[in-house]
Amino acid sequence: MSAAPSVQLSVVIPVYNEELNLPVLFARLYPVLDGLGRSYEVIFTNDGSGDRSFALLQAQHAARPDVTRVIDFNANYGQHMAIMAAFERVRGATVITLDADLQNPPEEIPKLLEKIAAGHDYVGGYRLNRQDSLFRTYASKVINFVREKTTSIQMTDQGCMLRAYSRAVTDAIVRSGAINTFIPALAYSFSSKPGEVGVKHEERHAGVSNYSFYSLIRLNFDLITGFSIAPLQYFTMFSMLSAAGSLALVALLFYRRFLLDLDRETFGVFTLFGILFFLLSVAMIGIGLIGEYVGRTYQVVRARQRYHVKEVLETAA
Ligand code: UDP
Ligand code: MG
Question: pTM for the full model?
Protein backbone atom coordinates (compact mmCIF):
# COMPACT_ATOMS: atom_id res chain seq x y z
CA MET A 1 0.00 0.00 0.00
CA SER A 2 2.14 2.82 -1.26
CA ALA A 3 1.29 6.45 -1.98
CA ALA A 4 -0.55 7.64 -5.08
CA PRO A 5 -0.54 5.27 -8.07
CA SER A 6 2.52 5.79 -10.27
CA VAL A 7 1.44 3.50 -13.12
CA GLN A 8 -1.96 2.91 -14.68
CA LEU A 9 -2.10 -0.85 -14.38
CA SER A 10 -0.69 -3.53 -12.07
CA VAL A 11 -1.02 -7.17 -13.05
CA VAL A 12 -0.64 -9.58 -10.14
CA ILE A 13 0.26 -13.23 -10.73
CA PRO A 14 0.85 -15.91 -8.06
CA VAL A 15 3.33 -18.58 -9.13
CA TYR A 16 3.77 -22.00 -7.63
CA ASN A 17 5.73 -24.58 -9.60
CA GLU A 18 4.85 -23.18 -13.00
CA GLU A 19 8.18 -23.61 -14.84
CA LEU A 20 6.43 -25.16 -17.82
CA ASN A 21 3.87 -22.40 -18.08
CA LEU A 22 5.92 -19.27 -17.41
CA PRO A 23 7.67 -19.01 -20.81
CA VAL A 24 4.33 -19.20 -22.62
CA LEU A 25 2.76 -16.82 -20.13
CA PHE A 26 5.52 -14.23 -20.70
CA ALA A 27 5.18 -14.63 -24.46
CA ARG A 28 1.43 -14.03 -24.39
CA LEU A 29 1.04 -11.57 -21.52
CA TYR A 30 3.61 -8.87 -22.29
CA PRO A 31 2.46 -8.23 -25.89
CA VAL A 32 -1.11 -7.78 -24.64
CA LEU A 33 0.04 -5.29 -22.02
CA ASP A 34 2.39 -3.49 -24.40
CA GLY A 35 -0.53 -3.15 -26.79
CA LEU A 36 -2.78 -1.43 -24.26
CA GLY A 37 -0.96 1.87 -24.54
CA ARG A 38 -0.92 2.30 -20.77
CA SER A 39 1.86 2.34 -18.24
CA TYR A 40 1.90 -0.96 -16.39
CA GLU A 41 3.79 -3.29 -14.11
CA VAL A 42 3.59 -7.05 -13.61
CA ILE A 43 4.12 -8.39 -10.10
CA PHE A 44 4.87 -12.08 -9.78
CA THR A 45 4.87 -13.71 -6.36
CA ASN A 46 6.94 -16.85 -6.23
CA ASP A 47 5.03 -18.84 -3.63
CA GLY A 48 7.87 -21.12 -2.54
CA SER A 49 8.15 -23.01 -5.82
CA GLY A 50 10.38 -26.05 -5.75
CA ASP A 51 11.10 -26.01 -9.48
CA ARG A 52 12.85 -23.49 -11.73
CA SER A 53 10.04 -20.93 -11.54
CA PHE A 54 12.08 -18.39 -9.58
CA ALA A 55 15.02 -18.62 -11.98
CA LEU A 56 12.63 -17.95 -14.87
CA LEU A 57 11.13 -14.99 -13.03
CA GLN A 58 14.61 -13.63 -12.34
CA ALA A 59 15.43 -13.89 -16.04
CA GLN A 60 12.19 -12.13 -16.95
CA HIS A 61 12.98 -9.40 -14.46
CA ALA A 62 16.38 -8.98 -16.06
CA ALA A 63 14.78 -8.85 -19.51
CA ARG A 64 12.05 -6.35 -18.63
CA PRO A 65 13.20 -4.64 -15.40
CA ASP A 66 11.12 -1.54 -16.08
CA VAL A 67 7.80 -3.37 -15.87
CA THR A 68 8.54 -6.57 -13.94
CA ARG A 69 8.66 -7.06 -10.18
CA VAL A 70 9.17 -10.34 -8.38
CA ILE A 71 8.30 -11.08 -4.78
CA ASP A 72 9.99 -14.20 -3.47
CA PHE A 73 8.41 -16.03 -0.53
CA ASN A 74 10.61 -18.26 1.60
CA ALA A 75 7.96 -20.98 1.59
CA ASN A 76 4.55 -21.89 0.20
CA TYR A 77 1.77 -19.78 1.74
CA GLY A 78 -0.97 -20.31 -0.84
CA GLN A 79 -2.37 -18.49 -3.82
CA HIS A 80 -4.34 -15.90 -1.87
CA MET A 81 -1.41 -14.94 0.36
CA ALA A 82 0.75 -14.59 -2.75
CA ILE A 83 -1.80 -12.16 -4.17
CA MET A 84 -2.02 -10.33 -0.85
CA ALA A 85 1.75 -9.71 -0.78
CA ALA A 86 1.50 -8.19 -4.25
CA PHE A 87 -1.51 -6.06 -3.27
CA GLU A 88 0.61 -4.59 -0.48
CA ARG A 89 3.10 -3.36 -3.06
CA VAL A 90 1.08 -2.45 -6.16
CA ARG A 91 1.76 0.91 -7.79
CA GLY A 92 -1.10 0.82 -10.30
CA ALA A 93 -4.39 2.72 -10.30
CA THR A 94 -6.12 -0.45 -11.48
CA VAL A 95 -5.08 -3.93 -10.40
CA ILE A 96 -5.67 -7.19 -12.25
CA THR A 97 -5.18 -10.71 -10.91
CA LEU A 98 -4.68 -13.76 -13.08
CA ASP A 99 -3.38 -17.32 -12.85
CA ALA A 100 0.03 -18.30 -14.12
CA ASP A 101 -1.13 -21.54 -15.76
CA LEU A 102 -2.85 -19.74 -18.66
CA GLN A 103 -6.30 -20.92 -17.63
CA ASN A 104 -7.17 -17.22 -17.70
CA PRO A 105 -6.14 -16.02 -21.18
CA PRO A 106 -4.21 -12.73 -20.90
CA GLU A 107 -5.98 -11.64 -24.09
CA GLU A 108 -9.13 -11.16 -22.00
CA ILE A 109 -7.59 -8.36 -19.91
CA PRO A 110 -8.96 -5.54 -22.12
CA LYS A 111 -12.52 -6.78 -21.44
CA LEU A 112 -12.02 -6.23 -17.72
CA LEU A 113 -10.49 -2.81 -18.28
CA GLU A 114 -13.51 -1.76 -20.35
CA LYS A 115 -15.76 -2.55 -17.41
CA ILE A 116 -13.53 -0.56 -15.08
CA ALA A 117 -13.62 2.33 -17.53
CA ALA A 118 -17.42 2.06 -17.44
CA GLY A 119 -17.34 2.95 -13.76
CA HIS A 120 -17.10 -0.33 -11.86
CA ASP A 121 -14.58 -0.45 -9.04
CA TYR A 122 -14.40 -4.24 -9.06
CA VAL A 123 -14.92 -6.56 -12.01
CA GLY A 124 -15.11 -10.31 -11.54
CA GLY A 125 -14.60 -12.61 -14.47
CA TYR A 126 -16.79 -15.66 -14.76
CA ARG A 127 -15.59 -18.58 -16.80
CA LEU A 128 -17.44 -19.30 -20.00
CA ASN A 129 -17.23 -23.02 -20.84
CA ARG A 130 -15.12 -23.94 -17.89
CA GLN A 131 -12.26 -26.31 -18.68
CA ASP A 132 -11.78 -28.22 -15.46
CA SER A 133 -12.54 -31.73 -14.29
CA LEU A 134 -16.21 -32.59 -13.85
CA PHE A 135 -15.60 -33.01 -10.15
CA ARG A 136 -14.11 -29.51 -9.78
CA THR A 137 -16.85 -27.96 -11.87
CA TYR A 138 -19.67 -29.54 -9.88
CA ALA A 139 -18.01 -29.11 -6.49
CA SER A 140 -17.69 -25.42 -7.19
CA LYS A 141 -21.36 -25.21 -8.21
CA VAL A 142 -22.25 -26.61 -4.78
CA ILE A 143 -19.97 -24.15 -3.00
CA ASN A 144 -21.36 -21.28 -5.04
CA PHE A 145 -24.83 -22.29 -3.87
CA VAL A 146 -23.81 -22.55 -0.20
CA ARG A 147 -22.06 -19.19 -0.36
CA GLU A 148 -25.11 -17.61 -1.95
CA LYS A 149 -27.29 -18.90 0.91
CA THR A 150 -24.98 -18.15 3.82
CA THR A 151 -23.31 -14.88 2.88
CA SER A 152 -24.49 -11.68 1.23
CA ILE A 153 -21.95 -12.04 -1.55
CA GLN A 154 -23.42 -12.11 -5.06
CA MET A 155 -21.03 -13.63 -7.56
CA THR A 156 -21.43 -15.85 -10.60
CA ASP A 157 -18.09 -17.59 -10.30
CA GLN A 158 -16.06 -17.15 -7.15
CA GLY A 159 -13.30 -19.45 -8.36
CA CYS A 160 -12.23 -17.39 -11.36
CA MET A 161 -9.17 -15.32 -10.52
CA LEU A 162 -9.21 -13.19 -13.66
CA ARG A 163 -10.44 -10.04 -11.93
CA ALA A 164 -9.88 -6.30 -11.94
CA TYR A 165 -9.94 -4.02 -8.89
CA SER A 166 -9.65 -0.32 -8.40
CA ARG A 167 -6.75 0.61 -6.21
CA ALA A 168 -9.16 1.74 -3.48
CA VAL A 169 -10.47 -1.83 -3.26
CA THR A 170 -7.06 -3.52 -3.09
CA ASP A 171 -5.91 -0.98 -0.49
CA ALA A 172 -9.00 -1.75 1.57
CA ILE A 173 -8.22 -5.48 1.31
CA VAL A 174 -4.70 -4.87 2.56
CA ARG A 175 -5.89 -2.65 5.40
CA SER A 176 -8.45 -5.24 6.51
CA GLY A 177 -5.55 -7.46 7.58
CA ALA A 178 -7.73 -10.51 6.98
CA ILE A 179 -6.02 -13.71 7.98
CA ASN A 180 -8.01 -16.24 6.02
CA THR A 181 -8.16 -14.51 2.75
CA PHE A 182 -10.51 -15.31 -0.05
CA ILE A 183 -9.67 -12.43 -2.34
CA PRO A 184 -12.77 -12.40 -4.61
CA ALA A 185 -15.14 -12.27 -1.63
CA LEU A 186 -13.07 -9.69 0.27
CA ALA A 187 -12.95 -7.48 -2.80
CA TYR A 188 -16.70 -7.78 -3.17
CA SER A 189 -17.26 -6.66 0.39
CA PHE A 190 -15.22 -3.48 -0.16
CA SER A 191 -16.55 -2.62 -3.58
CA SER A 192 -19.25 -0.02 -4.09
CA LYS A 193 -20.03 -0.88 -7.70
CA PRO A 194 -19.11 -4.47 -8.52
CA GLY A 195 -19.50 -5.73 -12.06
CA GLU A 196 -18.99 -9.00 -13.89
CA VAL A 197 -17.87 -10.06 -17.31
CA GLY A 198 -17.66 -13.44 -19.02
CA VAL A 199 -14.12 -14.53 -19.87
CA LYS A 200 -12.70 -17.45 -21.78
CA HIS A 201 -11.26 -20.32 -19.84
CA GLU A 202 -8.59 -22.64 -21.14
CA GLU A 203 -7.22 -25.91 -19.98
CA ARG A 204 -4.14 -25.70 -17.84
CA HIS A 205 -1.28 -25.19 -20.30
CA ALA A 206 0.98 -27.70 -18.53
CA GLY A 207 1.16 -29.55 -15.23
CA VAL A 208 -1.70 -30.33 -12.87
CA SER A 209 -3.66 -28.17 -10.47
CA ASN A 210 -1.78 -27.27 -7.30
CA TYR A 211 -4.93 -27.67 -5.28
CA SER A 212 -5.35 -30.98 -3.56
CA PHE A 213 -8.78 -32.04 -2.37
CA TYR A 214 -7.70 -31.04 1.12
CA SER A 215 -6.56 -27.53 0.22
CA LEU A 216 -9.79 -26.95 -1.70
CA ILE A 217 -11.74 -27.79 1.42
CA ARG A 218 -9.58 -25.43 3.47
CA LEU A 219 -10.09 -22.67 0.93
CA ASN A 220 -13.85 -23.03 0.95
CA PHE A 221 -13.96 -23.17 4.72
CA ASP A 222 -12.12 -19.85 4.62
CA LEU A 223 -14.79 -18.51 2.34
CA ILE A 224 -17.79 -19.57 4.40
CA THR A 225 -16.48 -19.06 7.93
CA GLY A 226 -14.54 -15.93 6.96
CA PHE A 227 -17.60 -14.12 5.72
CA SER A 228 -20.51 -15.30 7.80
CA ILE A 229 -21.40 -16.88 11.08
CA ALA A 230 -24.48 -18.42 9.47
CA PRO A 231 -23.12 -21.99 9.94
CA LEU A 232 -23.04 -21.40 13.70
CA GLN A 233 -26.50 -19.90 13.71
CA TYR A 234 -28.01 -22.67 11.59
CA PHE A 235 -26.33 -25.15 13.85
CA THR A 236 -27.82 -23.62 16.98
CA MET A 237 -31.29 -23.57 15.47
CA PHE A 238 -30.94 -27.12 14.25
CA SER A 239 -29.76 -28.27 17.69
CA MET A 240 -32.72 -26.62 19.36
CA LEU A 241 -35.12 -28.26 16.95
CA SER A 242 -33.53 -31.66 17.36
CA ALA A 243 -33.53 -31.30 21.13
CA ALA A 244 -37.23 -30.51 21.04
CA GLY A 245 -37.81 -33.44 18.68
CA SER A 246 -35.91 -35.87 20.89
CA LEU A 247 -37.85 -34.70 23.92
CA ALA A 248 -41.13 -35.24 22.12
CA LEU A 249 -40.00 -38.71 21.07
CA VAL A 250 -39.08 -39.67 24.63
CA ALA A 251 -42.43 -38.35 25.83
CA LEU A 252 -44.16 -40.47 23.20
CA LEU A 253 -42.23 -43.57 24.31
CA PHE A 254 -43.21 -42.99 27.94
CA TYR A 255 -46.79 -42.39 26.94
CA ARG A 256 -46.98 -45.67 25.01
CA ARG A 257 -45.23 -47.62 27.72
CA PHE A 258 -46.96 -46.35 30.85
CA LEU A 259 -50.35 -45.02 29.78
CA LEU A 260 -51.17 -47.42 26.95
CA ASP A 261 -49.07 -50.25 28.43
CA LEU A 262 -47.54 -51.11 25.02
CA ASP A 263 -43.90 -51.97 24.02
CA ARG A 264 -43.31 -53.90 27.20
CA GLU A 265 -40.45 -55.99 25.67
CA THR A 266 -38.61 -53.49 23.59
CA PHE A 267 -39.21 -50.35 25.54
CA GLY A 268 -36.99 -47.73 24.29
CA VAL A 269 -33.63 -49.49 24.37
CA PHE A 270 -33.00 -49.41 20.66
CA THR A 271 -34.82 -46.20 20.08
CA LEU A 272 -32.85 -44.52 22.80
CA PHE A 273 -29.62 -45.81 21.34
CA GLY A 274 -30.68 -44.31 18.05
CA ILE A 275 -31.42 -40.99 19.65
CA LEU A 276 -28.16 -41.11 21.55
CA PHE A 277 -26.10 -41.68 18.42
CA PHE A 278 -27.94 -38.94 16.64
CA LEU A 279 -27.44 -36.40 19.41
CA LEU A 280 -23.84 -37.40 19.75
CA SER A 281 -23.16 -36.76 16.09
CA VAL A 282 -24.95 -33.43 16.23
CA ALA A 283 -22.78 -32.46 19.19
CA MET A 284 -19.65 -33.51 17.34
CA ILE A 285 -20.48 -31.43 14.28
CA GLY A 286 -21.05 -28.52 16.63
CA ILE A 287 -17.75 -28.95 18.37
CA GLY A 288 -16.02 -29.07 15.00
CA LEU A 289 -17.71 -25.91 13.84
CA ILE A 290 -16.91 -24.08 17.05
CA GLY A 291 -13.35 -25.30 16.64
CA GLU A 292 -13.18 -23.66 13.22
CA TYR A 293 -14.12 -20.30 14.64
CA VAL A 294 -11.98 -20.64 17.73
CA GLY A 295 -9.05 -21.60 15.51
CA ARG A 296 -9.53 -18.50 13.42
CA THR A 297 -9.86 -16.32 16.50
CA TYR A 298 -6.64 -17.83 17.75
CA GLN A 299 -4.87 -16.95 14.53
CA VAL A 300 -6.05 -13.35 14.70
CA VAL A 301 -5.14 -13.00 18.35
CA ARG A 302 -1.74 -14.51 17.75
CA ALA A 303 -1.21 -11.97 14.96
CA ARG A 304 1.76 -13.77 13.52
CA GLN A 305 2.84 -12.48 10.13
CA ARG A 306 1.02 -14.30 7.40
CA TYR A 307 3.97 -14.85 5.12
CA HIS A 308 7.63 -14.06 4.91
CA VAL A 309 9.11 -12.30 1.91
CA LYS A 310 12.67 -13.39 1.26
CA GLU A 311 13.49 -10.79 -1.35
CA VAL A 312 11.88 -8.46 -3.86
CA LEU A 313 13.32 -7.87 -7.33
CA GLU A 314 12.27 -4.43 -8.50
CA THR A 315 13.42 -1.05 -9.57
CA ALA A 316 12.52 1.94 -7.40
CA ALA A 317 9.22 3.62 -8.26
N1 UDP B 1 -0.74 -21.02 -6.71
C2 UDP B 1 0.05 -20.41 -5.74
N3 UDP B 1 0.26 -21.07 -4.55
C4 UDP B 1 -0.32 -22.28 -4.28
C5 UDP B 1 -1.16 -22.86 -5.25
C6 UDP B 1 -1.36 -22.20 -6.45
O7 UDP B 1 0.59 -19.33 -5.94
O8 UDP B 1 -0.09 -22.81 -3.19
C9 UDP B 1 -0.96 -20.32 -8.00
C10 UDP B 1 -0.66 -21.15 -9.23
O11 UDP B 1 0.69 -21.06 -9.61
C12 UDP B 1 -1.58 -20.54 -10.25
C13 UDP B 1 -2.79 -20.12 -9.42
O14 UDP B 1 -2.32 -20.00 -8.09
O15 UDP B 1 -1.02 -19.37 -10.83
C16 UDP B 1 -3.92 -21.12 -9.52
O17 UDP B 1 -3.46 -22.39 -9.13
P18 UDP B 1 -3.95 -23.73 -9.82
O19 UDP B 1 -3.93 -23.61 -11.30
O20 UDP B 1 -3.18 -24.84 -9.21
O21 UDP B 1 -5.43 -23.78 -9.27
P22 UDP B 1 -6.76 -24.16 -10.11
O23 UDP B 1 -6.70 -23.46 -11.43
O24 UDP B 1 -6.73 -25.63 -10.21
O25 UDP B 1 -7.86 -23.63 -9.22
MG1 MG C 1 -5.31 -23.46 -12.76
Answer: 0.83
